[in-house]
Amino acid sequence: MRLLHTSDWHLGQIWNGRSRKTESAAFLNWLLELLKSQSVDVLIVAGDIFDTGTPSPEAQTLYYHFLQQVSSVCRATVIIAGNHDSPSFLDAPKILLRELNIYVVGIAGEPAEEIVTVNDSNQEPVMMIAAVPFLRDRDLRISGTGESAEEKENQSIAGIRRHYQLVCDAAEILRCKANRAIPLVVTGHLFVAGGKTSEKVREIHVGTLGQLGNDIFPNEIDYLALGHLHIPQTVAHQETRRYSGSPVPMSFDEAGQEKIVLQIDFDARTPMVKPIPVPVFSKIVRVEGNLEEIRKKLTDPSIGNNKPETLVKSEIIVEVIYTGTQPEPDLNRKINEIISETKETIDVIRIRNNRMITATPIQTSTPEKLEELNPIIIFERLLENIQKKEGIDISEQKNELMIAYKEILDECLNRNGQV
């Protein structure tokens, strides 16, 4: 059996006013060809299919067009919700998609309901997948009155551990009935302690919830397919417990980072993992320095070197970070003048003036929109403004406020799929 593990597509992302549609479409086309050429039996997408809980029609078209095509390529496709996804939105067409051998788990349910059994041509089971989605607090525990922030955190961690144990127990029962060496693959969308993060992963991990240990996963798991962190990496140096990472850069600090999908071949229950590089679909550059250093880097002919053949557009996407000691209040205009001197087509979509401690989009870019921001980030900024402008010290209450707000968001998402 051959499995392919990917995650964190973030379809519909708007990056500082720039749509990522062409890059997402290029990746999905490449992925489909890879699935065909490598004769992949099972595809797993470990969460964050979309960038928001209310994806645009364009993002939905990309998603459903891909599913329609992949249904004739893979024996089974398993998709779980991530923290950016609306569980109810993903679940809505699940009954229809199941007819195409596409299994979607948006909302966590009974452990046995999350088990997907993959059969061979003789209808004999050859793989079991425990499709565990992003686990929200309301899926895990019953809140008690008077609980402290630490008690709530401990309850959530215990709930995550319990859920994984129950789903693995349910899979083990089915595996024993089959009386064969069937591999167990388990999914997840969460942050495991020690993981490397990037700018895009900006959700607030309150207290120890951002420090879940590898020991929450039972030993029966033969391969663990995780999503949420955008940098490809192993968990606790175990080759069979992996984050596939995002297939395209989601932020400037991911520029130049090799993106991969993971191919896993099973010999009975023994997995052999092979990273497969994803082509570069955008040339992304971060330029830092004082004004003269920025000018030199932007006008250097080598900035256009090594453009990949898979580039979906000819321009170079650039972030400028001004780190000079002199104030540059008119920085946007000066950067625009420098760009006019270059021979390459450069799209500077963000300028950060560290001297002024601001992050400002270039004048030609679309300003940051409220609907494009993560609600948790907005709430965190509100708390910061209260402290700065009102002079109110809420440091002691911040953890409990963040937990309470996250519970409200989870409730909204579970009720109607949007905030």
What do these coordinates show?
The protein is of the alpha/beta class and 419 residues long. The protein has three domains: 2-277, Purple Acid Phosphatase, chain A, domain 2 (4-Layer Sandwich); 283-370, no CATH class; 372-416, no CATH class. It has ten helices and 18 strands. The strands form four sheets. The chain has a six-stranded mixed beta sheet with strand order 6-5-4-1-13-14. Strands 7-8-9-10-12-11 form a six-stranded mixed beta sheet, covered by helices on one side. Strands 15-16-17-18 form a four-stranded mixed beta sheet, with helices on one face. Helix 7 (291-299) runs parallel beside helix 8 (331-341) and helix 9 (375-390) runs antiparallel to helix 10 (398-416). The radius of gyration is 23 Å and the shape is globular.
Which H/E pattern describes the elements?
A: EEEHEHEHHEEEHHEEEEEEEHEHEEHH
Structural class: alpha/beta
CATH class of the largest domain: Alpha Beta
Q: What is the level-2 CATH architecture name of the largest domain?
A: 4-Layer Sandwich
How much is the radius of gyration in Å? 23 Å
The biggest sheet, with number of strands, parallel, antiparallel or mixed sense and barrel status, is: 6 strands, mixed
* Range of helix content: 25-40%
Q: From the 3D structure, determine the CATH topology of the largest domain.
A: Purple Acid Phosphatase, chain A, domain 2
Number of DSSP strand runs: 18
Strand content: 15-25%
Total domains: 3
CATH H level, superfamily name of the largest domain: Metallo-dependent phosphatases
Shape: globular
Instruction: Tell me the strand order in the biggest sheet.
Output: 6-5-4-1-13-14
Distance between the termini: 40 Å
**Structure annotation, total helices:** 10
The overall pLDDT, averaged over residues, is: 85
- Unreliably modeled segments: 203-209, 414-419
